[in-house]
Amino acid sequence: MNIEDAGDLFFYELKGAYYIETTLGEELAELADQANIETLDEQADGSFREDIHEAFQTHRDQTETHVGRLEAVFDALDRQPETHEIRAIDEFFAEKEQFNNVVLNDAARPLYYLDVGAKVEQLEVQCYDSLLQLAEALDLDDDVVENLEANREEDDEMRRRVTELAEGDGAEEVLGYLADETTVV
Questions:
Q1: Mean per-residue pLDDT over the chain, rounded
Q2: Which residue, 8, 32, 76, 177, is most buried by CB atoms nearer than 10 A?
């Protein structure tokens, strides 16, 4: 696809958003399960892991809706849904797999997964910000804009939720536990 004007750029970005959402649909259930692994150590309260699990499960469910909204955008513009690869999203999850291969203390998993979640949400929000800017410049129909805005709003809400979990009492407890386990500073 050659990009010659704002319409081409919009569809290029839309295909990227569709790739991100369809990729997330596959990855979030796994991330939710991995974040809720019961630790074999003495890290206390499992409710922190359960909260993370619930947040990722909720976002997985939302992602199915996001995919549907993007398909509605393609349909409203008389286009077939297509993707183009966004390497950043693939790299986030490749890095997560690399982390899983080297982590020896399961208590570290929730903190790391929250970081991955925050990065993914920020990428999604930025993607929708770009699409909305282009949609406004192109004066696209309200149904297109409303679908994009709804996805952006839910992704930003999830970004805030993940950030709150990463900065909350559960994270502090895990950090304290991991700090106590640290032998080298």
A1: 91
A2: 32
Q: What is the mean pLDDT of residues 164-179?
A: 90
* Residue in 144, 139, 142, 138 with CA at minimum distance from that of residue 6: 138
Q: Which residue has the tokens 């192109």?
A: 138
Distance between CA atoms of 10 and 8, rounded to whole angstroms? Answer: 5
82-106 per-position pLDDT tens digit: 999 999 999 999 999 999 999 888 8
Mutual angle of helices 87-102 and 109-138, in 10-degree steps: 180
Tell me which amino acid residue 77 is.
L
pTM of the model: 0.90
The answer to whether the beta carbons of residues 31 and 96 sit under 8 Å apart is yes
DSSP states along 24-87: HHHHHHHHHHHHTPPPSS----THHHHHHHHHHHHHHHHHHHHHHHHHHHHHHTT--------H
The CA distance from 148 to 169, in Å, is 33
Q: Mind listing the pLDDT tens digit for each residue in 153-165?
A: 999 999 999 999 9
